[in-house]
Design a protein that fits this description.
Layout lengths: L1 E4 L5 H9 L3 E3 L13 E5 L4 H11 L4 H4 E8 L9 H10 L3 E6 L4 H16 L1
Parallel strand pairs: 1-2, 1-3, 3-4, 4-5
Helix pairs in contact: 1-5
């Protein structure tokens, strides 16, 4: 399964690279491209003005039909706002939250996320 993500400070990119999975980084230049395979989104935690390119990607063409889940990265110091972007996306697009991790994630976070993605592929 493909991992689609955006990264502003590099933390999310570092997490995704550790996964060693097929991935696509969303930027302003490719936010409106179509995808034709199942994917999960890894979202950093920022206000909607900064992360709206993820919405643009999900809502392009038939991309939403292939979206299977969301994971989020953030900072636990944000308390109830920890990973709010991932939570909002999951609710908006009615898909499960697979995992929430801090900064670039630990080895545990990487393995846990990969297991959740495997489970999605089996269902």
């Amino acid at each position: 399964m493909k991992v689609v993500y955006m990264s502003m400070t590099g933390q999310t990119r570092k997490f995704v690279k550790k996964l060693e999975m097929d991935s696509l980084e969303i930027t302003m230049s490719n936010a409106f491209q179509e995808i034709y395979e199942p994917y999960v989104v890894v979202a950093p935690t920022y206000e909607i003005e900064a992360t709206s390119i993820l919405n643009d990607f999900i809502e392009t063409g038939n991309n939403q039909a292939y979206l299977k889940g969301i994971a989020g990265g953030g900072n636990r110091n944000f308390n109830t706002l920890f990973c709010f972007t991932a939570k909002d996306l999951a609710e908006q697009y009615q898909v499960p939250i697979l995992h929430m991790f801090e900064f670039q994630g630990s080895n545990y976070d990487v393995e846990y996320f990969k297991e959740k993605v495997r489970e999605l592929g089996e269902s």
